[in-house]
Amino acid sequence: LPQRLASLAAAAQEEMWQSRQQLQAQRQEMARLQEELSRARQDGERWASALQRAQREALERDATRGAEQARQQELIRDMKARLLELLREKDALWQKTEGIDTPTPSPVPRDPGLCARCRKDFRLLSRRYNCSRLCQAKVCHTCSVDMGKHGRCCLNCYQQRHPQAT
User: Fold this and answer.
1) Beta bridge mates, 152
2) pLDDT digits (tens, 9 = 90+) for 21-77
3) Which burial class, exposed, middle or buried, applies to 120 when counting CB atoms under 10 A from its CB (0-12, 13-18, 19+)?
4) What is the DSSP string of 100-130?
5) In terms of domains, do 77 and 132 share one?
6) Within a domain: residue 105?
7) Residue that is last in its domain, among 21, 53, 83
8) Measured distance CA(141)–CA(126) in Å, rounded
9) End-to-end CA distance of the chain, in Å?
10) 141: how many CB neighbours lie within 10 A of its CB?
11) Into how many domains does the chain fold?
12) What domain range includes position 67?
């Protein structure tokens, strides 16, 4: 019986030692898990703070963008109003000038060696152009306008044809 008790005591001690070992391992595991939990909470707080900051910045950007859009829409309204005003003014001016007679082109000079506008003498280096419009006058380069493939015309005829160019 004493041997039996000694063997049971040894088995109980061995079991107690293993239980202490398991308890120690579980405590270490619990400490590690608590540390991870603490880090996870800190990360969560940082992410929540970053999210709140990003949301605040987004709201501020939206407010700024909304104000800028309102300013741009106001500017567009003002520009449209100014355009309508200018169009009315243009129409009024056009109606005023409708009855005004346009000047007739200058008559062709008798001397074909002079410019019909500035009376400059045509020479070897000053070329003579025939007006391709109304008057058929002979004009110098300075007193004529290039009309592209339609040739050149004198300033009087050009101004009659394009009154906005004056």
Assistant:
1) 146
2) 999 999 999 999 999 999 999 999 999 999 999 999 999 999 999 999 999 999 999
3) middle
4) SPPPPPPPPPS-TTB-TTT-PBP-SSS--EE
5) no
6) no
7) 83
8) 7
9) 135
10) 13
11) 2
12) 1-83
Q: Which long-range contacts (CB under 8 A, 24 or more apart) does 51-56 make?
A: none
73 plus 8 within the same structural domain = yes
Residue 111: pLDDT over 60: no
Going from the C-alpha of 125 to that of each of 122, 147, 162, the distances in angstroms are 8, 22, 29
pLDDT (tens digit, 9 = 90+) per residue, 5-24?
889 999 999 999 999 999 99
Q: Token pair for residue 77?
A: 């309204």
Give 93's DSSP letter: H
C-alpha distance from residue 60 to each of 49, 63, 71, 105, 159 (Å): 17, 5, 17, 67, 57
106: left (phi over 0), alpha (psi -120 to 50) or beta: beta
